[in-house]
Sequence to fold (392 residues):
Amino acid sequence: MLDRLDQQPPDALLALIKLHDADPRADKIDLGVGVYRTGQGETPVFGAIKAAEQKLVKEQDSKSYLGPEGDMGFVHALMPYIFDGEDPTIGGRIDGMQTPGGTGAVRLALALAKACGVSRILMGIPSWPNHAQIIKDLGLELVTFAHATDDGAADLAALEAALSDGREGDAVLLHGCCHNPTGVDYTPAQWDDIAQLLEGSPVLPIVDLAYQGLGHGMDEDAYGARRVIAAVPEALIAYSCDKNFGLYRDRVGALYAMTADTESLARVMSNGYALARAAWSMPPDHGAAAVRLILEDEKLTAMWQDELDQMRARIRQVRDRLGTAGQVGSVDLTPLAHQNGMFATLPLDKDQIAELRSEHGIYMAGSGRINVAGLTMDNIEKFIHAVSAVAS
Ligand code: LMR
Fold:
């Protein structure tokens, strides 16, 4: 039986990590997988996480099972940051559950949507490649539209057209902030329009919020998700702490569901628990417990927010430098200055991307996506020169 399986290619993005690691050049640059790096090129554990982990080691008195919902203290502690701080439960209509990373949250959101009759997912492209993989794996139909216009702005008209064709049984998957892979976000005014479009639409909104705090700030980056949930009766939010708490390998995420009335909420969540139980049973505890300990402690919360602010400021600094480089060969870096988060997609072809790797030791995704956080004030000039050399 097993020999009937075809060889699968390794995940292109994850394979880049190994290729980069194997390159002996000292001045190589890793702009591949989305992990934050400091000005020294490191991905350190947050100080607030270290402190919370120490507390956890000291205070945790059991590793006994939680349930498929995970650590509800963690799930609830995040809610005032994601939703309206005054009433994060929106009148008792929102609850959540812990998931293994943002990927687990996206998977569960889509599985839950499928369980209630969704068969088509509307999604702007390009998108994070795993979105399409999960959609396919769940046997859902993917209906695409353009995410961005050629001049580097979010294409609201394309989303509007997709939504106007939307029908019962459709869900739309939206990136809440820091769009992966383009860095092109809907503006607040566009989110206002999106909220209006969704109001009264049969299309179920699913918002993937994986980079909150890396764009303009925790509140600012939640604007889109908050506008959407204020406009519609039902929505799903897939959340990740992998980036904004730097917990990548600990896999910390959450799925939130907003239901039309308070009575349906427990029933909807019970479906989330059942799906989780069948998929991974329970999420890993450690990282989520560390996040909970941070959010329960004022000092640790302030420390985490400060670390997040520093990350965001450094990403902005890199973006500003790229923006001032302007036209570099055939590539215009100017728009990168006003895009958000860790990613940008450069209009480079496969040969140019391969040449950047072979000739200059610069590793980026085959889509032309770069992780701008992989650039530092020490290697950014080399990067700009290399782009100009391959895209002349
Ligand atoms: C990325 O897009 O690089 C990250 O979200 C990591 C991943 O799992 O793909």
